[in-house]
Design goal:
Layout: H1 2-18, E1 20-32, E2 36-43, E3 47-52, E4 57-67, E5 72-83, E6 86-93, E7 96-116, E8 121-144, H2 147-153, E9 160-171, E10 176-186, E11 191-201, E12 203-219, E13 225-232, E14 243-247, E15 259-261, E16 264-266, E17 269-279
Parallel strand pairs: 2-6, 14-15
Antiparallel strand pairs: 1-4, 1-17, 2-3, 4-5, 5-7, 6-7, 7-8, 8-9, 8-10, 9-12, 10-11, 11-17, 12-13, 12-14, 12-16
């Protein structure tokens, strides 16, 4: 037992002696991978599926890495994703024009093991979670009035309603994985720069959503607003609810429009990051 204890102490001392801590900041851009159907594009002649991933976009990351020895380390990172606009609905027919996009605004974190292949080349693999944020949908809809609708408002044929609203979607706690392969170049004892290819594998199941802004105007054929704020966040039209909850099972007899079936949305991506690191301990072991 005494010998085991001495070996344990020796390992601890070795870890402290050869350990190295560094912090890094990086920024990059990712494209969607493992894209799923996000919506549809509808014209007078055809309907086309729209595919993609909400993981596409720019990001910034702050990372802390501790190396136990010349080869192995552990990495904890926090990041923000500013997602690209993705089409979820596009309709262009004579009586209706719809343009709906959605984008991610998400905060995430990861814990990874790091392995140095050489002093310059490294890889890391670990778990990824989304800790905050939303998928924001921004919708524009123009609907041309029928003669009956125009007569009801006492306005000429060719008038239309114009609706703009924003709906925020929140997901359940997700767990995914992250993997990266990078090259680090040491500038001096403390500073180094790096470039890496990074893959995120993660998807989110919707939990709830909230309409945060809503406005409908009635517009004349010449573009003049005849009725401003016909509908608003406090006066939603039929078919819209301010707050919705998403569930896995929905009875066929359900009449509550605020309860909807859940779906998974993709956040997987493949991207490239560029960054700079600061080493708190000068390394005789390489960085």
């Amino acid at each position: 037992m005494k010998h085991v204890f001495m070996v344990f102490i020796a390992l601890c001392i070795s870890t402290i002696t050869f350990g190295q801590f560094q912090v890094s900041v990086s920024s990059g851009y990712a494209i969607g991978s493992a894209g799923m159907k996000l919506g549809e594009k509808v014209s007078i002649s055809e309907t086309e599926n729209s595919y993609g991933s909400y993981g596409e976009g720019s990001n910034i990351q702050l990372r802390g890495t501790y190396f136990f020895n010349n080869t192995f380390g552990v990495d904890v990172a926090f990041g923000y994703l500013h997602g690209a606009d993705k089409t979820v609905s596009e309709v262009q027919i004579p009586t209706m024009d719809v343009n709906a996009i959605a984008r991610a605004r998400a905060d995430g974190a990861s814990v990874s093991l790091v392995y140095k292949f050489t002093n310059n080349v490294y890889g890391r693999f670990g778990a990824l979670i989304k800790i905050a944020g939303k998928t924001e949908a921004v919708v524009y809809q123009k609907s041309t009035f029928t003669q009956q609708q125009a007569d009801a408002f006492g306005i000429p044929l060719g008038s239309y309603s114009e609706t703009n609203y924003i709906e925020d979607y929140h997901g359940q706690f997700p767990l995914g994985f992250v993997a990266a392969f990078g090259y680090r170049y040491e500038i001096n004892e403390h500073f180094s720069v790096f470039a890496e290819a990074e893959y995120y594998g993660i998807s989110l199941k919707r939990k709830d959503s909230e309409i945060t802004a809503f406005n409908t105007d009635v517009v004349l054929p010449n573009g003049t607003v005849a009725v401003s704020g016909l509908y608003s966040l406090d006066n939603l039209p039929t078919g819209y609810v301010k707050n919705s909850t998403y569930v896995d099972n929905l009875p066929n007899t359900n009449t509550d429009a605020s309860i909807k079936l859940a779906q998974k949305v993709p956040y997987s991506s493949f991207g490239v990051n560029l960054g700079i690191s600061y080493n708190f301990k000068g390394s005789h072991q390489g960085s």
